[in-house]
Amino acid sequence: MTARRNAAPPSDVPDGPVAGLAARRTAHEAVAGLLGKGRAFALEDALAQAGAGLEPGEAALARAIATATFRRFGLLRGVLAERMSQGLPEDDPRLLALLATGAAQILDLAVADHAAVDLSVRLAKADPELRYRAGLVNAVLRRVTREREAILANAGDPLDVNTPDWLAVRWRAAYGEDAARRIAAAHLDGAAVDLTIREDAETWATTLGGVALGLGSVRLAEVDTPVASLPGYGEGAWWVQDAAAALPARLLQAKPGERIADLCAAPGGKTAQLAAAGAAVLAVDRSGVRLERLRKNLDRLGLTAEIRVGDAITLDLGEPFDGVLLDAPCSATGTIRRHPDVAWTKTETDVARLAGLQRRLLEKAATLVRPGGRLVYCSCSLEPEEGERQIAGFLQHHPEFERVPVTPDEVAGQIEMIDPQGDLRTLPCHLPLSSGGEAGLRRSGLDGFFASRLRRKS
Q: How far apart are CA 292 and CA 268, in angstroms?
């Protein structure tokens, strides 16, 4: 939990325009949208829609509030339910979102208590749907303020409190009790900023005040300035990419001149890795908007790739490729450190639906691999149906492919990232950084990723 500032009485907040009100309105609208109808949306999209035109500082505050709300949403729900005589307003997402964003500020952010309470009440009074609940908002949040220390002292274990039951059951079954608890604890820590470096990671780590992870990535300390203002950004020396997300493209081992297909390519970090290796890359994605972002990133990096908009399953992509990388659409439960809304906006139904899509994409990807060529399948999910079971089923029906196991040197000796079958399996609790000293300034952990490297037999 973040150190707090001293609180002041609500009367200290002046009438008229109030600093931070727009940010809190944006956070409230984004969270309410996701709770009400939002499984089709991501938090970043909801924030962008609700906060169009916000100043950078206000936008950052809105993001911090919304992220803190979802990161400890289980705790917040329990705290609010215990302090409301009629229970949690599950059928009123706007009220629930206003109470939760207010409580998140009190319990988890370095903002003054009076600002969290008073501005939440102001938002209620300004909202026709919530105006008559302003007194309730005031009373509940003031009680949370008074009882903050007791709440934090009895916050409980993250797996029991801040993980939806369906995910906790799955992770216990897939990884065991201890690992499941370490995964849930890692989610509370949040995610670091990792960079994929074109050349000389050690030098760039020194230049940027980061640490070279040994996986080919550099992890930064807390970043207080826009990433685009850091040394090396303008000249395309690096790009932002979680260290785990950078591993699948490296497993493909693309060589200069090889033809490589990158399916479901946006936003483009893996495309950039393959192009930087000298391969002739075809990047395919259904989203023209996301591919435009990919194109801009490649332009900044001075890299080129052929870009094609469309459904990889139905597109005719021409002659077979030396290598195919399929980063399949998935439930993204491996990214909860970075996107805590995923835990509360995805369901088991999503896992089953996406697993079907992944099978179809994998079947298509297999047809694109020449004899002797490689196929890397990956997903940023912790769910076995979207990783291990996909490959087990594929290999059962495709004897023309064989697994090429990941070797310890490909993961900097981190053998816990290699599963018994030889596939890559990273967990959010992997890659702990030692406490104290320079490394202690950086968050541990990785995104949860699965990747399997296959070869079509000659």
A: 10
Mean pLDDT of 301-323: 96
- Angle, CA 347 vertex, CA 422 and CA 79 arms, to 5°: 115
pLDDT confidence of residue 110: 87
- For residue 11, is pLDDT > 70? no
Tell me the one-letter amino acid at 219.
Answer: R
Per DSSP, which regions of 264-403 are E strands?
A: 280-285, 306-309, 321-327, 369-379, 401-403
Question: Can you tell me whether residue 303 is helix, strand or coil?
Answer: coil
Q: Which two tokens stand for residue 426?
A: 């990273």
The sign of the torsion formed by the CA atoms of 166, 171, 173, 176 equals negative
Comparing CA positions, the residue from 78, 85, 233, 203 lying closest to residue 147 is 78
Tokens of 111: 């903002």
Conformational region of residue 191, where left means phi above 0, alpha means psi within -120 to 50, and beta covers everything else: beta
In the numeric block, the tokens 């206003």 are attached to 98
Range of weakest confidence among 31-40, 73-82, 288-297 = 31-40
d(CA 448, CA 417): 10
Phi, psi (deg, nearest 5) at residue 324: -130, 130
DSSP string of 377-388? Answer: EEES---GGGTH
Name beta bridge partners: 212. Answer: 218
Q: How far apart are CA 155 and CA 72, in angstroms?
A: 10
- Contact, 350 vs 379, CB < 8 A? no
Query: Active-site residues: which are they?
Result: 380
> DSSP states of 44-74 as a string?
HHHHHHHTTT--HHHHHHHHHHHHHHHHTHH
Say yes or no to pLDDT of 371 above 50.
yes
The whole-angstrom separation of Cα 454 and Cα 452 is: 6
Distance CA 60, CA 57 (A): 5
CB atoms within 10 A of CB 240: 18
439 CB-side CA count, 13 A: 9
pTM for the model:
0.92
263 - beta bridge partners?
Answer: 284, 326
Query: What are the residue ranges of helices labelled H in 368-456?
Result: 388-397
Q: Other CB atoms closer than 10 Å to residue 398's CB: what's the count?
A: 15
